Amino acid sequence: MCAEAGAMNHMSGNMKMEAQARGGVMGGLKRKMMGESFFMSIFEPMGGPGIVAFGGSVPGTIKAIPLDGNRLFYLQKTAFLAAQDSVQLEIAFQQKLGAAMFGGEGFILQKVYGVGTCFVHACGDFVEMDLAPGQVMKVETGSVVGWEGSVQFSIERSGSIKTSLFAGEGFFLTTLTGPGHIILQSMDLERLAKALIPYLPKSSN
How many structural domains compose the chain? Predict the structure, then answer.
């Protein structure tokens, strides 16, 4: 198994853990661009079966995504948690300039493919949908976790200027067009942080 640095929660005594720059220096630099760690933790049992468990960095949910070699998934950066060593994790750039500038997540996505299981994590609960061909789902940008490679991704204005200013949803929404599977999160980390600010201790300085 390979995982983000610091993601391990517990493991059996026969599990060997080693930090590696998977994919070499360039692979590590690409992961840093995706918002992930330069080094990844590699786990391998010694002398027999072993156990390793992982945990996310925010209150939320972990989901397993099975990959069969024909399935490609795009993830928002920081969504990747861990995967079998046979799963490939690469950098992917958003194809549309509007999505990159106004999508709230920057230019960079994560692309996972191969044969094996990939684990993702996000805030709150996961909301999953299978979109039919041409079916459209408009989503608050921070709520998007990932989508199959067959899904079209774009950014659109949330409505009129008045709606954008006063509806509380921002100026832009993410538009996902089927066919394909999409994964959303019920809680936005940025909104959670803003909700907690009034309750944090105030500095006397």
Answer: 1
Assign 3-state DSSP to the chain and report helix, strand, coil percentages, each to 5: 20, 45, 35
* Residue 128, helix vs strand vs coil: strand
Cα torsion 100, 103, 106, 111: sign: negative
80 and 22 Cβ atoms separated by less than 8 Å: no
Query: Does any domain span residue 16?
Result: no
SS3 49: coil
pLDDT band for position 182 (cuts 50, 70, 90): very high
- pLDDT higher than 90, residue 136: yes
CATH code at position 172: 3.60.160.10
Residue type at 50 in one-letter notation: G
Q: Quickly state the pLDDT bin for 119 (edges 50, 70, 90).
A: very high
The tokens of 52 are what?
A: 């390793």
Share of the chain above pLDDT 70, in %: 76
Domain assignment present for 27: no
Minimal CA–CA distance to 6: which of 31, 35, 41?
41
Residue 46 counted as domain residue: no
Please state the pTM of the whole predicted model: 0.77
